[in-house]
Design brief:
58% of the residues lie in helices and 8% in strands. The protein is an alpha/beta fold.
């Protein structure tokens, strides 16, 4: 249990916070012993909650550290008896924001998927329960997987599905949607719309990959799709035999003489 008031939480104290959490082992012999954190988020400086959230979110990337619960109270000077609130999902919002940023900027969905497992478990007690965002989340995972594997055809198919899934999601009842996800869906549309169009060019996808520093993916698209674009735009001609080659040379010669 970490009491917020037991730490002087400021930017310079982040190493101290990290050391406090990572040193919580029952024994030195258990390197992978799981640390389950229960946070008392009441008290301390106003910046304390933000710093603790950020540090815990960072540390959860280590397999043996997990945030189980965080609590606060509805404090009032007029009442000595105050309600203890479970604020665990509020802590996980940082995980969602981090996951959104990860997918929009790098095409990865690990944190995003992790957040929704926590969300379902906390809200419904079941990670498999169906929610309004499921189809869109599955599509996001599919895009992330195809990008990771440099599966260009799979990525193109997943992008086409993304456009349809966003249209379906936007048409759903607003009461069914998670508020913060609606904003993310809008960002998805603005971020991916230029490469999910049916008339997208290989150069559009290559530029998109380069902007996100997905260099291997850009090379794969260049190798598998760019030659098709060159042929479709008449920059390069593909001839299957000498007869077709002769015919094409004749056509180009006549075109040249006519201009």
């Amino acid at each position: 249990i970490i009491d917020m008031e037991s730490l002087e939480v400021r930017y310079e104290a982040i190493p101290e916070v990290v050391e406090t959490i990572t040193s919580m082992k029952k024994s030195d012999n258990e390197e992978d012993e799981e640390i389950k954190l229960y946070l008392d988020m009441q008290g301390g400086a106003r910046t304390a909650v933000f710093v603790i959230n950020a540090v815990v979110n960072m540390l959860q990337s280590q397999k043996h550290i997990s945030l189980e619960r965080s609590y606060a109270i509805t404090f009032s000077f007029d009442n000595w008896i105050n309600e203890i609130r479970d604020e665990t999902m509020a802590n996980h919002v940082l995980e969602l924001v981090s996951g959104m940023d990860e997918f929009l900027n790098y095409g990865k969905a690990n944190k995003f998927q992790q957040y929704y497992k926590h969300y379902k478990k906390m809200k419904y007690g079941d990670e498999t329960v169906a929610i309004a965002e499921d189809a869109l989340i599955n599509n996001i995972n599919e895009i992330a997987e195809t990008i990771s594997l440099c599966n260009v055809n799979g990525m193109y198919a997943a992008l086409d599905s993304l456009k349809n899934e966003i249209l379906i999601y936007n048409a759903k009842d607003e009461k069914e949607k998670e508020p913060i996800f609606k904003s993310f869906a809008n960002n998805l549309e603005s971020n991916y719309s230029k490469i999910w169009n049916v008339d997208r060019k290989a150069t559009d996808v290559i530029q998109w990959c380069m902007e996100k520093e997905l260099y291997q993916q850009a090379l794969t698209v260049c190798e598998s799709k760019f030659p098709i674009q060159l042929v479709d735009e008449g920059i390069v001609y593909y001839c299957r035999n000498q007869q077709e080659k002769g015919t094409k040379i004749q056509e180009l010669s006549e075109w040249k003489n006519s201009v």
